[in-house]
């Protein structure tokens, strides 16, 4: 009797990797990743997170204050 051979477990297929990349890109563009990073930071620091609505208002306020008065 021969010893059983170990089978290599295949990783995610190219379609799954592509979809994961698209999902990551969409989350980065929409700001969803920022919210998750904020929640992780609050959890790590032991602080109470603000509501999602307050978080988005704060982000908008900061973004509006950093606008350029010129095109370039």
TrEMBL record:
One Pfam short name: Sel_put
Domain of life, source organism: Bacteria
Protein name in the entry: YbdD/YjiX family protein
Native source organism of the sequence: Nocardioides aquaticus
């Amino acid at each position: 009797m021969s010893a059983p051979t170990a089978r290599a477990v295949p990783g995610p297929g190219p379609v799954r990797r592509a979809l994961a990349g698209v999902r990551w890109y969409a989350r980065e563009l929409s700001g969803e990743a920022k919210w998750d990073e904020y929640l992780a930071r609050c959890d790590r620091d032991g602080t109470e997170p603000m509501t999602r609505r307050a978080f988005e208002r704060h982000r908008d306020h900061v973004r509006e204050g950093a606008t350029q008065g010129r095109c370039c």
